[in-house]
Predict the structure.
Amino acid sequence: MSRLKPFITSSVNFGELQSAYRQGHSTESALNKIFDDMLSDIDSGSVVAVMSLDISAAFDAVDHSILLQRLEDEFGIIGVCRDWISSYLTGRTSTVHVGSSESSVTTAQYGVPQGSVLGPILYTAYVASVGRLISSFGVGYADDSQLYTKLSAGPSSGLDRLQRCVSSLQRWFWSNGLLLNPDKSSIAFFGTRARLHKSTLPSNVTVAGASVAVSDSLRILGVTIDNCLSMDSHVNETVRSCNYHLQALRHIRPSITRDVANTIACSLISSRIDYCNSLLFGVSGLNLDKLQRVQNRAARIVCGVGRRQRPSNDLLVELHWLPVRSRIEYKMAVLCYKAYNKNSRRTYHHRCSRMRRRAVYARPQRNCCAFQSTKPYLAAVVSPSPHLVFGTICLSLLELSTTSLVLRLF
């Protein structure tokens, strides 16, 4: 496995923008790719159409014969290694237990084992050619299920291109034993509020032969993105979820120790606040204050003190918790550092370029009404030295007082 996985991922036929099940990549890197591409298109005065597709039972529908042939033709896996993968896939049996009843044993002729180490890399190799198909239509994508395109020359031309791409994808999935699920697919248009109001946009779009209603927000990889990219919906959902768990934690707090309460708060609250929080860089202070109030409440519950007994900042220092703003800045610094210093593929380096540009030039605050143009801040593109850019990023982030706070905490 240690030799097979690098061999597949280093192939030119492996999806260049694939983030799922790939070392050094995550849902956050995929979302940053989508988010920054949308910001660039919106800054240029365009409306962006984003379509999120759903594949029904993707892992369970993989055809073994097609997979083995694709590994041989596109990735050069032959001989003993191919036979080893074939023996891993074939001969598996399954049965269903319901109460005391049990079905007959059947041989699994399709699918790769979910939850296994080898299953995800085999599935990504199976759908690797999807990326080349999508790129042939001039449509942006992240992994194999998020498609987006800008509608600069008119909504009809961009949507026609997007629909043709989806039709070709549907035929490709059919020929490979997979099926698009239009009931779980969704589409939304993104841009400034004024431009969305002026543009003539359809209320329904055809996806895989079914009419899908256009929504005001889109949930992608666990993050809800509203059509103005203000992140209001995502922050409100995060706050609602955290408050639910904090209420449960408050009930059991007298029965557990402080260390246990701290562990629960970090696993249930901090994980939700930190998930893809690099997307919150530059959002309104109102949204950051909402998240900060949630963190302050969690600190008071863990420490067992009331609102007026001790300042929230002292509790955060005592618990070694970075405030929300500093956590976002720290995440940005970590991503920038990894993009320059880790042995990541060129694609990850490229997709972080606009994110690094945001960190250096402090992209203007976004709000729910309109975006401010970032064109005056694009001078980093012509920077002759990437090390100079990275140094400027570090200085900018240091000026945001993150380092001083880390020194206080640790």
About this structure: The chain is about 50% helix and 10% strand. Confidence is low (pLDDT under 50) at residues 343-351, 353-392, 397-410. Residues 28 and 275 are 8 Å apart (CA to CA). The longest helix spans residues 155-175.
